[in-house]
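Review form for a predicted model. The reviewer records the input and the model, then writes brief findings.
Reviewer: anonymous (R2)
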Amino acid sequence: MFLPKYPDSPTPPPAHTHALTDPAPARRPVPQISVSTGAVVTVLVGGVVLTALLAAVAVTAISVAIAAVVLRSMLRDQRHR
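Model under review:
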């Protein structure tokens, strides 16, 4: 009842076993990205401008801090007199 059923005329295994190699995976074509010189110049100029603005903010913050320290010391000297 639970015995497997075999075919009536079994086929013999092949005499020569041929090892199949996997074909190379298909490569998707890489999209060509063309970067114009205008885009490169725009990115470089934008980076320079942003760096200059950051430097200006840093210099302004330092100068305001120095001015605050000088004013505080001047006001402290006036209170002692």
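Findings: The longest helix spans residues 37-80.
Further findings: The radius of gyration is 40 Å.
Recommendation: see findings above.
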